[in-house]
Amino acid sequence: MTMNTFDMIYEKVMQIPRGRVATYGTIARLCGNPKLSRVVGYALHVNPRPGEIPCHRVVNRFGRVSSGFAFGGEGVQRSLLENEGVVFGEDGAVDLKKYGWYG
């Protein structure tokens, strides 16, 4: 069975460990095409299994949460990450050197 792009994205996102984050670009690269960052964002926006696919663990290249987090806004995404032990800096970003996951 061949996976479609969204399935590949969801598979990679499900591998992000609790308390870690990946960027849209990292997920795109792990799927084999670093130019798919926007597609990753769209796939997560329409996440069919939000309780199973931890889309809240994906942040932008600056370590910031999405202002349009599909499941309740950026405050919800930040709260979910903080509940996993992710700490945000004064600038509102996650330290990708400390919390980043690169597959």
Task: Give a description of the structure.
With 103 residues, the protein is mostly helical. The chain contains five helices and two strands; from the N terminus they run αβααβαα. It has a two-stranded parallel ribbon. Helix 2 packs across helix 3. The protein is globular and about 40 Å long.
Name the structural class. Answer: mainly alpha
The low-pLDDT segments are none
Number of helices: 5
Query: Cα distance, first to last residue?
Result: 23 Å
**H/E element sequence:** HEHHEHH
Strand order of the largest sheet: 1-2
Please estimate the helix content.
25-40%
> What average pLDDT do the residues reach?
92
How much is the radius of gyration in Å?
13 Å
**How does the overall form come out from the CA principal axes?**
globular
Number of strands: 2
Beta content comes to under 5%
List keywords for this structure.
mainly alpha; 103 residues; 5 helices; 4% strand
Quick recap of the structure?
The chain is mainly α and 103 residues long. It contains five helices and two strands; from the N terminus they run αβααβαα.
